[in-house]
Write a structure and sequence with these properties.
The structure is a single chain. The chain is an alpha/beta fold. It is globular, with a radius of gyration of 18 Å.
Length: 251
């Protein structure tokens, strides 16, 4: 098999890394990213009924569970079936074990229990499924909040997603996007990048300005803020990234 065809988000290494990212220790004083995003989204959506939420790019489920502490019903959707399987296992069994990288070939076993996060009481309010954010099934609609976490720069057709997402929100519903805007051709053909390039006149097109143009017809930009996160690769190698959160209220 051509290794280029392998989806890295289905590999055991990435599953373990994201379990650690969402349920593991915090590093360098940076707060848990999934928890921070969910709590900020809850705050920004207080003007809605906070009945139904959609967590797109839910990964291993932390933010979906966190949203369920407030919302009556939460859909958690991720393109990776392996990530969704972890979230479902947590939901149905209350715990998981995953492998954390040590030095070289050394591996450490880590255990997660939903009771440590207060998720057991709310887990029944969450429905996890594998899905494509650019081609969601029609039943995913009528949300008060849609949260798309570090998603748009990993979509093959982000324009399609952005131009249709308003159809799935209630009036005055809130869309919360986070992204470090790391556009790469391995995920998104350059012709479909939302920003991060210069146009034919040499003008730099930033992602936030492009989002204002694309979403402006149906949304009002409410706020932007930086949300940092740290991903542990090994005991001595970490990714430190600053994601930009933009909050949009449907007109």
């Amino acid at each position: 098999m051509d290794t280029k065809e392998i989806n890295i988000y289905e590999t055991d290494e990435l599953v373990g890394q994201y379990c650690d990212f969402q349920y593991g220790d915090e590093y360098f004083g940076v707060a848990n990213f999934a928890k921070a995003c969910a709590q900020k989204a809850i705050d920004y959506s207080k003007g809605t009924s906070q009945t139904k939420a959609l967590d797109l790019g839910c990964a291993t489920g932390y933010a979906s569970f966190e949203l369920a502490k407030i919302f009556d019903y939460v859909d958690g959707i991720d393109y990776s079936q392996a990530f969704v399987n972890v979230a479902k296992q947590l939901q149905h069994t209350g715990g998981i074990s995953y492998t954390q990288n040590g030095e070289g070939e050394i591996k450490n076993r880590k255990d997660v229990c939903v009771d440590d996060f207060g998720f057991r009481e709310v887990s029944s309010k969450v429905h996890f499924s594998q899905g494509d954010a650019c081609a969601l099934a029609p039943e995913f609609k009528e949300y008060d909040l849609i949260m798309a976490t570090n998603l748009i720069d990993r979509l093959y057709a982000p324009h399609l997603f952005l131009k249709t997402i308003h159809e799935r929100l209630n009036k005055n519903g809130v869309l919360v996007l986070t992204s470090p805007y790391t556009w790469k051709e391995e995920y998104t053909a350059k012709e479909f990048w939302v920003g991060g390039y210069a146009d034919e006149n040499g003008q730099e097109i930033t992602t936030l300005n492009a989002l204002k143009e694309m979403l402006g017809k149906h949304f009002e930009l409410v706020a932007t803020e930086d949300v940092p996160f740290v991903i542990r690769e090994t005991p001595r190698k970490f990714q430190y990234t600053i994601s930009q959160m933009s909050v949009w209220k449907k007109k």
